[in-house]
Each structure stands twice: as C-alpha cells, then as structure tokens.
Amino acid sequence: MQLIRMFSVLFLAIGGLACGQPLVHDEHEVVVRDSVKLKIAPGPSDPQIQFAPLPSAVDSVAIDPTLGYFVGNLGGGVYWVTDGSYNNMFMVSTHGVIVVDAPPTIGHKLLYAIGNTTRLPVTHLVYSHLHADHIGGASLFNASHPTIIAHAETRNRLATLSPLDPLRPLPNVTFEGDYTVSVGNQTLELSYHGPNHTPGNLFMYAPAQRVAVLVDVIFPGWAPFTELGVADFVPGLIAAHDVLLTFDFDVFVAGHVAQLGTKHDVLQQKKYIEDLRDSCASALNGDMTDAIGPTVAANPGNVWATPKALFRVAAQICADNTTSRWLGVLGAVDVFAFENAYRMVNSLLIEYDVPGPFSVA
C-alpha cells in the first residue's frame, strides 16, 4: 500500500515541457517540433531536478483539496472520477451501478463519489486488468456483493497469487473475446485484442454515450509514464492505438492523468511512440563502438558490461533525438525520456527482432 501511495505521489509530481504554444492541428493532423534544444534531466543523485515547464496540452481538471477528488459528468449516466493521478469510471443505470476499476489511491472517495450521485447499489465491477494500483480498492465494494467481471487472463494471474490478495477478489465472471455488461438501461461493451500493457487488459466502450476506456496505454496530453507505462508487450501496446481508433467515441477516459482525451490524443501518442520506435531502431543500427569502448575496456571478462553499455548508449541517443522533436507538444516528455527509450530498445531487440549489433555473424 505504501508503494501505491508513493506511485501516486510520483505521478502527481511529474514535470513536463513546453517551448512556446503547440502548433495548430485538426483532429487528423499530428504535428511535432523538430528544432528544440534538449538537455536530458539530471539523475537521482542531483540535489534538485528541474524539468521543462508543461505545455498547454496538459489541461488537468482542478481537484478540490477538501474533497481530494473530482467527479465529471459525461452524460447519459456516465461519470469519471480522478484524484489527480488515477482515474476510473462508473455508470448509473435504472437497476444499479457499473464501476470500472477501483484505484486504492482514490479509495473510499470513490464510495463518496458514487453515493453522492445515486442511492442505487454497485451491482457490477469490471477489472480493466490485474494491476493492484487500479483494482486494489475492489474489496471496498464487498458489502454490496457485486458481480466482478474480468478477462480470463486477469483471473488466471490473480489466482496464481499465494496467498490470494483479499484486496482484489477473484472475478466470478470471465470471458475470452467479447462481453457485454447490461444493467437496467446501461450497456458497457468489453473486448480483448491481445496483450498490450498487460495480458488481459480490456478495451471498454459505452456506445450510447460514445465513451471509450483503455487503461495504462494512452496518457492524454502527456508522454507515457516510465517504461512506456510499464508495458508488458510493446508491439501490442503500439497496435492498441489503431484498435482504439476503430471505436466511434467522442470522449476517452484514461487510467492516469487528470484530463479526458479525444481521438486526437490517441493519434498524437501513436505518432510519438512510432517516432520513439524508429529513433531507437536507428540508434541500435548505428556504430556505438567508440561510445561503449571505455566501459568494455574497464570491465574485462564481464559479459554483462557490454550489453549494459550498449543499451544505455542506444537509449540515450534515442531519448535525445525523440525528445527534441516532442518537447512542448506532449507533457513531461523529458521526465521519462530515457526510461521509455530503454524499454523500446529492449523491445526492438527481443520482441521486434531488430538485433542491431547482435545480428547473425
């Protein structure tokens, strides 16, 4: 629980970027900057870390400090809740409430948000995926005995925990492909399109309200959190952008950052991650002999020293090049630039088969 609180604090403290105003665009045009001078953020040993200022693309809602949370009405009985770092959604029907996720950082505030909106009980709880930072507050709904719904892979992974986590009760309804939650006059469509952030991570869509939900993949207005949102399978993460764009939505609810998104945000992040991928592939295929030479020479016989140096140099080159083009377009591009590039470098090596210096001799 302490780790979750630290994670939330870290998320709230993310710095960001901006060099002037973002360029003008329409919904289907994605633009990046290509001439911003970048200085990678200092390391953890520095006494003070100063990141670039946030651009106007970061438009977080104001959180009432007394309440500690914000509830937004998306229309048609759909609401989203945020504590400034974590988000979730609930739907009020004529017969009960459907809740999507229960982040422990929001915790009991989620009960207040729902209770101040309706007197109807929570009858259904949907797990977006297995991670505790998004469903670790699920046990708060035990009193109403909701039907808990998740992808089969989510249940399988939760069931491997020993002992079972009482804060994340096992779902009692699972599915493999698609599943429709129907309660009273509300409908929420769940679908699975393969692993991305995690195996079992769901696409969720409220067709009547044209609201889409996908957790830990898209970060509206912001660059992705560290290691591409701690992505389990980067090719699936990248493909998820195109899958999400097939849904006919006006509003997008993300798992993090205190702002809603649109299709433009999905297109913008897709462009950023593709740029990151291409930049890291270029770095891997470049000549890094001189850059890693001193590390190799200083560690004779240490078989881990060479790949460590190579991964670090390739990631830094990729981070520098990509961030210089996106500083001022997405929030906090400089904060996790290296970590995101490092994850992409490793994905290219083992998931995409871009072997670089590890090619067949």
Automatic annotation (TrEMBL):
InterPro entries in UniProt: Metallo-B-lactamas, NDM-1-like, RibonucZ/Hydroxyglut_hydro
Signal peptide feature range: 1-20
Coiled-coil boundaries: none
Keywords: Hydrolase, Signal
Domain of life, source organism: Eukaryota
Metallo-beta-lactamase domain segment(s): 86-256
Keyword hit for Signal: yes
Name by which UniProt lists this protein: Metallo-hydrolase/oxidoreductase
